[in-house]
């Protein structure tokens, strides 16, 4: 009889634990760091590092994903080629083995493999612990010897994301996506005026359940502009910093021109809520004239849809 009671109690505890686990509240945060310091005469280089984290209720990282958009553009003699607009910018993760780091790596690992080691290393840590982590730790260096300065900063930003989305339950997958394009406002240097390489990036992160439906989403954009003269010399200030639209908040100054009186980040928040429960295919097929969507988000949504769907698809 005692044995039966013990078994019953054990089963009861198991059921309760499972129930509790499924009702745990998590947060999805995203952080972006844009760096133009690698630009040099004749070549514009914009590195945009994105990190997404799922945090538990104690602020510890449950899951992490990172990627880097290393966008380069030739501006020799101050000229942007006529066909530059068709340039396909791939992230380091998207390049996979073709990034070709393995041969030069002291540990024989490609970039995406080292990024995965970094992601695993920060699991269980808080923002403060990531910010202060020892980058010479042998456990980290066993799998990741690439520079981690921007990765760490992006993860800390993601952990401290005040616009993080809450969701209930455990995510089966976490994914990030980046889409970068050379904006049509870019121009060659001409008639004594500096040229400008405006490589804009969209960032999306999604947490998915085991059926591929969005539990939470995050989205942001960065619009860096690197100037150069007719010799191709970089003229942007050495201390040039780029804030994302999400980071600018009210500083983006859209509310006054918005028909629904909402700032950019507020409309993005509405879009993020709108895609909850949707699959990658359903996101791609969103009716942009849907009244429920337009009640909170009237900005152009083509980039939002494309990047969010890309993130959801990548997780599958």
From TrEMBL:
Identify this protein by name: FMN-binding protein
Q: Does the keyword Signal apply?
A: yes
Q: What top-level branch of life does the organism fall under?
A: Bacteria
**Signal sequence span per UniProt?**
1-21
Enumerate the UniProt keywords alphabetically.
Signal
